[in-house]
What we know:
The structure holds two protein chains of two kinds.
Chain A: H1 21-33, E1 38-39, E2 53-55, E3 76-78, E4 87-89, E5 93-95, H2 105-118, E6 121-123, H3 131-136, E7 139-144, H4 153-158, E8 161-165, E9 177-178, H5 185-191, E10 199-200, H6 210-224, E11 231-236, H7 240-249, E12 254-258, E13 267-268, H8 269-274, H9 279-292, E14 300-304, H10 310-318, E15 323-326, H11 328-334, H12 342-347, H13 372-375, H14 380-404, E16 418-420, H15 423-429
Parallel strand pairs in A: 5-15, 6-7, 7-8, 8-11, 11-12, 12-14, 14-15
Antiparallel strand pairs in A: 1-13, 2-16, 3-4, 9-10
Chain B: E1 2-5, H1 11-19, E2 29-33, E3 50-53, E4 69-72, E5 88-91, E6 107-110, E7 123-129, E8 143-148, E9 164-167, E10 178-181, H2 185-197, E11 208-212
Parallel strand pairs in B: 1-2, 2-3, 3-4, 4-5, 5-6, 6-7, 7-8, 8-9
Antiparallel strand pairs in B: 9-11, 10-11
Amino acid sequence: MAKDDVTPPQTLPKYSSTFSPDVNAEIRRAAATGIYDIRGGGAKRKVPHFDDLVFLGASMSRYPLEGYRERCDTNVVLGTRFAKKPIELKIPITIAGMSFGALSAQAKEALGRGASAAGTSTTTGDGGMTPEERGQSKHLVYQYLPSRYGMNPVDLRKADAIEVVVGQGAKPGGGGMLLGQKISDRVAEMRTLPKGIDQRSACRHPDWTGPDDLEIKIMELREITGWEKPIYVKVGAARPYFDTTLAVKAGADVVVIDGMQGGTAATQDVFIEHVGIPTLACIREAVQALQDLDMHRKVQLIVSGGIRSGADVAKALALGADAVSIGTAAMIALGDNDPKWEAEYQALGSTAGAYDDWHEGRDPAGISTQDPELSKRLDPVEAGRRLNNYLKVMTLEAQTLARACGKSHVNNLEPEDLAALTMEAAAMAKIPLAGTSWYPGMPGGGM
Amino acid sequence: MQVLDLTDITLREANAALQNPSEGSNETAWEIVNARGSHAIAVGLDAPIDVQVRGSTGYYCAGMNQQATVRVDGNVGPGVAENMMSGTVIVDGDASQYAGATGHGGLLVIKGNASSRCGISMKGIDIVVHGNVGHMSAFMAQRGHMVVCGDAGDALGDSIYEAQLFVRGSVKSLGADCIEKEMRPEHLEKLAELLAAGESDAKPEEFKRYGSARQLYNFNIDNAY
């Protein structure tokens, strides 16, 4: 071999961690279009989450309950503080607010069917209440949003609870949007808007500002509905201690805290990824606020944002929540991002599992769309059955974990049943690092 | 005339009486006395009754009204007739912020002035203000009509959709995407109808019409601030 033929060793092409391929792609996209990226879903970045906690289980000092034989209850009552008619659910997993408009009528019906079969509630969204979801939902929570699209006293009285939405985890401090592709004739009429416009929702309520006003607003809503309905206050996770305190002060029956992994139908990516805090970081703060007010278990706490399994449910309950709420996971259960539509996801420039252009209304699964042909792909009965199955599995999983910790009700799980695998999770969840009695972030390490 | 005295009964009792008038009763006239600035007076009504409120009220008087006619002989706090669906609400005095906010229908008449954000996110309500309106009035107004016999403050009709605004006096400034529009005969006719219903003797010819330029209906980077 001639000396000149020897190729000297080469360095591999090295991508920058700062200017990674996805960052560069976004720079090129922004430079080409001049507009920010809008997408659906919640934060995709990796953040400390329930996976970073484990249950300790029974041992010499605690005894477990027999799986499948000894009772482990799952029922929960929401709205016991002031409402004449609190909601009684069979399971502590509710369906989060998702609008007709963001979702097809078939998807909303499927959510109602699945939730009702499982004995839990579903929730309207920005755009009002449809007959399909009211008809199929045994327990329906009616969202009271800044836009007040479709808001009317008749539907308010039909609701089983009212959720005053101050914010959501995907965008604390931001309003909603629904792009023109999804403003069909029916959606436009329900929202009193011209067809096909890019609809904006206000980020603040139009007729109250701050907790003192909210107290009066809640009183008005109670007066209109005869003090029957539980009133929830939903906030995006940002300052959970103070937000919970102020929501209780304003008269909430239930506080809903939505972490940054919580999804949205459409929002700027920069908002989703850079505003708000992880779900794991807000539960203990909210619980502490309730305990300081002697309101824990008197005002119920619902936590949402990235709940995927019975393990997540059990861990949220152990940290002090009374119930959880799911949105993205419910959509996946219905059929969103299913690999069977891979060819069509590819045609849209995405792939199953990553598709998040829900705002474009071209969802191959027929869920986040108003296209009549695509919507027809979703059978509400079959999709509702899948959701019911999924809710049952999550409940069984949560019961399994609760029994392992010796609890006869999933709500009896407690922080003492948990250990953290990382310092970040330990600090955020105020749980000791596994194998230690160290609480990172607490004065003196909690010792 | 049935009298509800808020010094003798609770707000809940007063509202319950108005929300559930006896079936088959011929008594449709009600009077609320000693309002004393209470919040949420006469909210959630849904019957063709007449309610006269004596004195001034706090927040959300006649909120979400349907069918009823509510008249306040004093001033009203924030959010009078918020989200009204139908019926009529008449305020003899002034109104605080958010008068008629998100109203879907019916007629709101303010004989005095209305503060900021009058008609915010209105969705079909008609509002007639005899005096002036404050800043950001008709913000994101979607449908319906607002008639201002006096002056309008800053940023009138900001981000307006399809609501129509009529102002007789000056407009301090127009909000984003709100422009003056031609006053055609059908508008004068509608305005005359609204002024008559709103108990105003102002002349339609003295008004200018404002509405949406429809330039913000679809996202465009050149519209960003």
